[in-house]
Amino acid sequence: MAQRSFIVEVEKAKGASEGRPSRGPVYRSLFAKDGFPAPIPGLDSCWDVFRLSVEKYPTNPMLGTREIVDGKPGKYKWKTYKEVYDVVMKIGNSIRSCGYGEGVKCGIYGANSAEWIMSMEACNAHGLYCVPLYDTLGAGAVEFVICHAEVSIAFAEEKKIPELLKTFPNTTKYLRTLVSFGNVTPEQKQEVEKFGLAIYSWEEFLQVGQNQTFDLPVKKSSDICTIMYTSGTTGDPKGVLISNESIITLLAGIKRFLESVNERLHDKDVYLSYLPLAHIFDRVIEEAFIWHGAQIGFWRGDVKLLIEDIGELKPSVFCAVPRVLDRVYSGLTQKISSGGFLKKTLFNCAYSYKLHNMNKGLKHGEASPLLDRIVFDKVKQGLGGNVRLILSGAAPLSTHVEGYLRVVSCAHVLQGYGLTETCAGTFVSLPNEMEMLGTVGPPVPNVDVCLESVPEMGYDALASTPRGEICVKGKTLFSGYYKREDLTKEVLIDGWFHTGDIGEWQPNGSMRIIDRMKNIFKLSQGEYVAVENLENIYGQLSCIESIWVYGNSFEPFLVAVVNPSKQALEHWAEENGISLDFNSLCEDSRAKSHIIEELSKIAKGKKLKGFEFIRAVHLDPVPFDMERDLITPTYKKKRPQLLKYYQNVIDNMYKTGNKPNA
What we know:
This protein is of the alpha/beta class.
């Protein structure tokens, strides 16, 4: 039987021309074969998304936070759509009373919370640019973003206020008003006022504009809604300009996709908000839930308590990064292997039976309904009992974890792919399609996608198995990098956004991500690593001649192959009473520990993030050379060749490496 393809061709392939590499055919989702979803009447901005839901679902619970009673977490306490709207209007009046209006940049800094969403909606209402601030980009990133975006007013989680004050006086040129989501201490007030700024507690700020009302400006779909900062290959974060139209278009695509696979969202759906709202992935998911009048409950901010929050909230849709799903997988397999022989045997037999039926084409709900009730229901209850969709994004999910969860969770497990520049959603796998394991599925039904050949890496978009750089076109694309027209022109060519990721079309129309063009990659927890920058830092050590740092999206930590300095290592060995020749020293575990210790010292000194530390090393006494095709004649590292040459060594380091605490 011929395999069904989930994409349709909309434009023929093009050969190389005018200095551009050859381009493969342009495809779009089969769900958009008759055209992309039409614009929704009356929905021109993110403010309209919220405003229309308030009109349609005023009494529906919208934002929920767990009450803490006598130091213990209780039930979720909810604000309805109308109650949230009333607070948003107060915040908006206070913002305007302070003199801030359309086009002003408003920072939001802190963990997900009801106050975060309400501050965002006030920005949407009055046409301010929402600028999320988050601290995983390295030291000074918050200061850089405030100064680069020229943030005038910033809302912050109470415990983040001291962090903001550390950016003084450099940020006080732009920053004029601070608002805490909680309280403000007299000392903080004094410190802020010393620089001529104003600071308010949440309750104080709600009163600032109480005697004033302001008309809401007319908002256009082309207006910028948010500036999201994302890490580049090297250097400073880039401000990605995202318009109302990008988000609205994506929402229409999500709606078309979910309707096409009979999994539409509705106002009884419940979502757990724990992935950072400062990232586009969570932001657009929450917009989709708000649009459907659904419920959003917030976690308590501690990953160790996440499962408990899930149990209390009972979400129907669960979004995750691979690291969270890896934890779920590890917890489940550990529990099963530590159970009795009978339980383990029953589970494994049930798993094999259901997997066999799913591979034959049965839908997950029809593959073994009896075993779902008897065996797999405990897994389902562990995720609250109501989860019907699990969506993984931000980094690749291991195929064995994805396959396992598709069987045991009694939910659809979908893997997606997107970038901040594509407004998150670009590809997503389909329910009940086991052949899509290990892929990110076909395109969402509001973008066109093609592959462009990368001759220098040996990828041909016109080959029988097409491989090349993934390029995306559509209204979900960003409007450019803020104040960086040069970078915008590099990646937006003739309307096509060049992602820098290498993909491979599968026969069924799904996409597999197989490589990255630039020397930047994500670890499994979704953190970006600019590898050349790290090699420059670690290369400053006198005990190292050369270093190749490696990481990938399936692992949470970095490893390295090091050419140690013969003189330095032999000197260290002599001082420590170790009498081995240089080659033997390179294999000695004490020498490896010494090098890791030195790497950690410089990492701490340079204030690198935990995920940028090297956790395992291989010491090669033979320098990287051209004879083994590991470097170019100008001594640049050939990374694909290095990986191929040291693959076994890498695999071994990941088995034995000093894993960071989960």
